[in-house]
Specification:
Blueprint: H1 17-36, E1 40-41, E2 47-49, H2 50-53, H3 58-63, E3 67-68, H4 80-85, H5 88-94, E4 98-100, H6 105-114, E5 123-132, E6 144-153, H7 159-174, E7 180-186, H8 187-197, H9 203-210, H10 213-227, H11 232-238, H12 248-258, H13 263-282, E8 287-291, E9 305-310, E10 321-326, E11 340-346, H14 347-356, E12 370-372, H15 377-391, E13 397-399, H16 406-415, E14 420-423, H17 426-431, E15 433-438, E16 444-448, H18 452-461
Parallel strand pairs: 1-5, 7-8, 12-13, 12-14
Antiparallel strand pairs: 2-4, 3-4, 5-6, 6-11, 7-9, 9-10, 10-11, 14-15, 15-16
């Protein structure tokens, strides 16, 4: 029998105790701010019906959905004729009716529509769960990753956009992450640009290509548009929008002037003016705002303000968050006239940024505070009894499971970074005392058994 080399699929990771301590720190920060802003938690299944997910993310997004192969007798329903004829999409649908969730927004829309009679609107929810994408793994891009969303469904008010950006600001301020930039645009401005350059009927192809500007550059975007059949004169009209200069207000003013007379863009421009005015008056702590006329957020369900969060300029990584307004997403599940706005935190990328900038606290605990040494027999039983009393005080401690040489037990405490070792052996029992060794300084002290709770509680406060 051959031995299988242990490994994990590309784009996935194992997390050690040290890493999990940092991830929990970041997650706790997010949860605290979400709940401070009045959001309530929600969890949905890791996989959905395939029909729930397909068609919501655009052609490129649909290709990245992890489909789940039918099991049992259902696999026999595969359309072999479709396979033989080369219709891979039809064959794929015939052997798969479920898929791992691609994001948390579409499952939210499905949940709200399914439970609309029991939900109080506006519905404010946050969700922290894994999502899966069949993407090419690279730095900061994984096939399985944690997504953290906060959405308000059932309220078209622009105050939701203001609050979403303020929420980002509060989180990054708490994490001491400075130099973060939020790029903002509006889908109706993009629609106006498309109308101006004469590609109104090709809006989706236009936005999908435009959204790749930071990845493939202006030349790459132009080549993709040409490949999709866009005329050169349309591209020439587009170019000025790709090289706007000045601050937020100046760039927005240039766009407003260029799109004057195009009705669809007026609402988007007015909405951005309102949001910008409110944020300037509220005075952001660590964020800066940029207007970006090329920002498109390729997902098809966005209809209004869209945003993307960019890490500090010295960090080479893609966006660490994003979101926007979606007015029609729940329509697809039968719930009409229910607007939503949401933001997402790229948890794993934010984690990597905090690591690179050394912003995680040094004292994150991922170990026990105390190790009780094992002297065997009745001494072990007595030590274990005292350990149980300490755990009742919610103090982390552990018991070495075997009465081996004390040097080995001490080495274990040292390797696990356990700060204190407690010894209750024959001499200690005889004298009604216990010994404490500080593993960092090597100092030892003796105390009466009756004071063990008091001493341990005091030492745990110093950890």
């Amino acid at each position: 029998m051959s031995v299988i080399k242990p490994n994990i699929p590309r784009g996935t990771r194992d997390f050690s105790a040290n890493i999990l301590a940092k991830r929990n720190y970041l997650k706790d920060n997010l949860i605290t701010i979400f709940e401070t802003f009045g959001f309530q938690p929600l969890e949905t299944p890791s996989f959905e019906r395939l029909e729930t997910l397909l068609g919501k993310y655009g052609e490129e997004g649909d290709r990245l959905i992890f489909k789940i192969l039918n099991s049992g007798e259902k696999i026999k329903q595969g359309d072999i004729k479709a396979l033989e004829s080369g219709d891979i999409q039809k064959f794929s649908k015939s052997i798969s009716q479920k898929a791992l969730r691609y994001d948390l927004t579409v499952p939210l829309a499905r949940y709200v529509s399914q439970n609309q009679n029991g939900i109080k609107f506006p519905f404010r929810r946050y969700q922290i769960q894994n999502v899966w994408r069949a993407d090419r793994p690279q730095n900061g891009r994984f096939r399985e990753f944690l997504q953290c969303d906060a959405d308000v469904v059932g309220e078209p008010s622009l105050w939701q956009e203001v609050e979403g950006i303020l929420l980002y600001d509060r989180v990054f301020s708490n994490l001491n992450l400075k130099g973060v930039k939020i790029k903002i645009n509006h889908r109706k401005i993009l629609a106006g640009i498309a109308e101006l350059i004469g590609v109104k009927s090709q809006l989706i192809d236009f936005t999908v290509a435009l959204d790749k500007l930071t990845k493939i550059g202006e030349k790459g975007v132009i080549n993709e548009l040409l490949e999709k059949g866009f005329e050169q004169k349309a591209i020439d009209r587009l170019k000025p929008f790709l090289s706007l200069n000045g601050d937020f207000k100046s760039q927005l003013s240039q766009v407003e002037s260029a799109l004057s007379g195009i009705d669809i863009s007026n609402q988007g421009i007015d909405e951005l003016k309102f949001v910008y005015k409110q944020l300037v008056e509220k005075s952001l702590d660590v964020l800066s705002l940029d207007f970006d006329s090329s920002l498109a957020r390729g997902l098809n369900y966005y209809t209004g303000l869209i945003l993307e969060v960019i890490p500090p300029k010295d960090i080479r990584m893609g966006s660490i968050g994003g979101g926007g307004r979606y007015d029609n997403l729940t329509n697809l599940f039968g719930l009409k006239n229910t607007s939503g706005f949401g933001i997402s935190f790229g948890f794993d990328r934010i984690f990597l940024v905090l690591e690179q900038l050394n912003l995680f606290p040094e004292a994150l605990q991922n170990h026990s505070n105390f190790l009780f040494l094992n002297f065997g027999g009745k001494y072990a039983e007595f030590s274990f009894k005292k350990l149980s009393e300490i755990r009742d005080r919610q103090i982390s401690c552990e018991f070495y499971p075997k009465d081996v040489k004390l040097k080995k037990q001490m080495n274990y405490a040292d390797q696990r970074s356990i700060p204190f070792v407690i010894m209750i052996g024959p001499e200690e029992i005889k004298n009604d005392i216990f010994m404490v060794k500080d593993m960092k300084t090597g100092d030892q002290s003796k105390h009466s058994i009756s004071s063990i709770i008091t001493i341990v509680e005091k030492l745990s406060q110093s950890v």
